[in-house]
Amino acid sequence: MPPDAPARLAASSVTLIAAYCQVAWLLFGTYKVVTERSVPRRPRRAILAALVLLAISSVAVSLSFSPEGRFLVRIGVRSFFLGAAFLASAWGVWRSRVHAWGLGRRLVASAFLLYGLHQLHYLVIALVQMVKSDAMSYAAYLGSFDFLFQALIGIGMVIWLLEDERQRGVATSQRIEHLVYHDSLTDLPNRHLLLRWLKEAIGRAEARRERLAVLFLDLDRFKVVNDSLGNHCGDELLKSFADRLRHRLRGTDLVARLAADEFAIVLPAVESEGVIQRVAEKLLEVTRLPFTLQGREVYLTASIGISRCPEDSTEAETLLKRAEIAMYRAKVTQRDVFQIYVPGMDSNSLEQLSLEADLRKALSREQGELALFYQPVLDSSRRTVEGVEALLRWHHPARGLLMPGEFLWLAEVSGLASALDLWVLRTACREIQEWRRAGAADLQLAVNLSPRSFQHAELLGEIRNVLAGTGLPPSALVLEITETLAMQNAEATLAVLGGLKELGVKIAIDDFGTGFSSLSYLTTFPIDTLKVDRSFVHTLGVGRGSEEVAAAVIALALSLEIGVIAEGVEQQEQWRWLEGLGCDRFQGNFFSPPRPAAECRDLVLHGSLDDRGTLAKRILSSA
Prior knowledge:
3 domains; 17 strands
């Protein structure tokens, strides 16, 4: 063996190993470029180990071959693998749709193809040399082509990288621009894009003497669903609703999301008022369809305001604002309807803002405009006043005495409902505890909770603090919630009610019989009292089926050993008929209307007031 044989053997092994690894890394890279996925680590290591072993074996096996045989095994086989790999890579790069088709990608694919064919040419030379035992005359000049093709590959890759970087920059810029003008949750246009598009649409409408309409849509009770089921379900509901809007409108219409549950729709080139109204009706019908969230069906309605161009304005901002004003009018008056803007609604909107400011000021004053009236709840079997229900009134400095229906809706939409409920709860607990100390030791206090307060995370802590601060025993407090509110999220409701029962507070279901839920919750919720809705009491002997419904509610409550109160009793016949069915607790104007705190206190403690009609004392003492 020549003295330099080991060195040449090692050099041949290293060269062949490098060539085979080049094949592997080329194919791995091509796979990642084409699929944008890397080859898993374990298969990658196994392939590299197998190629290293193949290279070493080829060198070892070829030691016993003739020079031509060694050339074929070491150079020819290597050229075959390299050629096949470059041809496969050229095909993969050429067919790939992941990256943009540019000069760099064309150059790389073409250079891969030429270099692969060039390597296969080396295999042909090795085979010819083995057969004819002489080298081809031009083989010595092929090295320059290796350099040329490799240089083309390198230049093509540099150009490809630059083009790819530029393409990513353009895509990022487009994405940023899209996010600026689109809502991230629903991917609908936002207010900025809506106004820009609306201005253009107004310009086209004026040039063509066409009409267009703007619809401002707000989901009713969305906040209740969002607070009950969580933000995730609220987001899913908004995305589902956005998809409904997309599929129910024309291709020329634009729908945008303006805020959490507010959407705007622009209808260009509308032919008549009837077309606008039909679209609004269709949107209301779409909203009424059930949404499936967490395996349960949720029902919503919408309020829609409509403004028109050119009748109401030719300015984009003004059209949108007037559609919003009309929407608020629809929400205040009825909900689940649409309202077309008419001149003068702006002043009503300003009045609403003024009333909201006045309500905030009233809340900030300890002694002032807000006051509580109380209506007695009578136990006819014991002929005593069992408790009172706290009812809020507002002595507005300019409007006079306002009933709850005139301002509670404003507290709900302006976010003041929780603060107002807390004021009522604290004030009522303090006053009733004073009455109890003065002689009405067993008096119960009933307070209504709004949906927003019931879903408030700090509700239990606030009630605990109020009871501790006023000294009212928890057993003397009855919190009233509506049947619909109780079933918004049964699991969450059960958890809250369980916490209230641990405090010792009693629970009453108000307006029972008017909801849409299953009666099964009566056996799972810790309910103390059902209140028969006044709508059934008022129609006794008049409304069809009212007696049966009232009788069924009373019988159901008695069978479940749940207390029952009939509210809205205004006639002696109603009282006697309900009492005959087993109902022994009543509330209504027949016994006593809601009274200011001082008057009701006198009635509860002394029973000496003449209410210019029925004497409460006489009613309580009658047989």
